[in-house]
Design goal:
About 45% of the residues lie in helices and about 20% in strands. It is α/β, with parallel strands linked by helices. It has a single domain (about 5-155, about 170-205, about 265-274), classed as Rossmann fold. A 7-stranded mixed β-sheet has the order 3-2-1-4-5-7-6, sandwiched between helices. The protein starts with a helix and ends with a strand. GO terms for molecular function: methyltransferase activity. InterPro entries: Methyltransf_25, SAM-dependent_MTases_sf. Pfam families: Methyltransf_25 (PF13649). One of its GO terms (biological process) is methylation.
Length: about 270
């Protein structure tokens, strides 16, 4: 599938968004458990040919490689791949790192035993194109595994909170948290994947004792929030967004004063490619 000039421009904006802030710091702060959970659910074993799509810093790719799999980590953002390479080198792991668009993967048909993505492919703007590519590069009988934030969970609601401050989405783009809905997922993959599990889980976050410290973590580290704040700044609404984020983390705190606790719901989907 060939990318158009408009698509190339859109992906350049996405690449810049994810390179802004400090996403590796977010991984280290609270996202690290998600990668191993996906790898375990996919049943990755030594010798498997594994593709991690929208791999970021390798949160799922690295534990897959540690199991002895032959792993390719692909991502649109070279800065995140560079961080992943450093992590792999520090851990003594060998992986292939490839800059790639999830909607136009540069890999052969049916070339992987396991195709997976942990809160990654869900952020590609055109969901059907991405789903088609995941199926295409997975061999018949191979496994497809996805871990995605749910629309009803905390991160799904974070995007709803930020929406009034974000630039209008391009034509055809769909909201990322839709990937965390069972019916949306079934619709994307049609009868091409037999889902063996569609399970909801929770990531518990206790790394930020102060609620508003957590909000500032998003505005300083998380690309989508940084982009929303930059857009809000164009008409002087930065403080409105900051206030909305403070109210949001107040609402979602499940802890006690001085010991904030957040629960982020995700959908863990694993199936066999027909």
């Amino acid at each position: 599938m060939t990318a158009t000039a408009t698509d190339t421009e859109l992906k350049a904006r996405h690449r810049a968004m994810w390179a802004s802030g400090d996403y590796p710091r977010m991984v280290d702060s609270f996202l690290t458990p998600l990668g191993p959970r996906l790898v375990e659910a996919c049943g990755v074993t030594a010798g498997d040919r594994v593709l991690d799509v929208a791999a970021g810093t390798g949160n799922a790719a690295l534990p897959a490689a540690a199991r002895g799999a032959r792993v390719t980590a692909s991502d649109l953002t070279p800065e995140l791949l560079a961080d992943g390479r450093r992590r792999a080198e520090a851990a003594g792991l060998e992986l292939e790192w490839t800059e790639a668009d999830a909607e136009h993967l540069p890999f052969d048909d049916a070339s992987y035993d396991v195709v997976m993505s942990a809160i990654g492919v869900m952020f590609a703007p055109h969901h059907q194109e991405s789903a088609d590519e995941l199926v295409r590069v997975c061999r018949p009988g191979g496994r497809i595994g996805l871990l995605s934030w749910t629309p009803e969970g905390m991160i799904g609601k974070l995007f709803a909170t930020m929406k009034p401050f974000m630039a209008p989405p391009p034509p055809g783009a769909q909201p990322p948290p839709l990937w965390g809905g069972e019916e949306h997922l079934r619709g994307l993959f049609g009868g091409r994947v037999d889902w063996s599990s569609l399970d909801r889980g929770t990531l518990k976050v206790t790394a930020f004792p102060g609620r508003h410290e957590f909000a500032r973590h998003f505005t300083s580290c998380y690309g989508p929030t940084i982009a929303a704040r930059a857009n809000a700044a164009r008409d002087g609404r930065e403080q409105q967004l900051d206030d909305a984020l403070d109210a949001f983390v107040d609402e979602w705190d499940r802890g006690t004063p001085g010991a904030a606790r957040y629960e982020m719901e995700y959908l863990l989907a694993v199936g066999t490619r027909r």
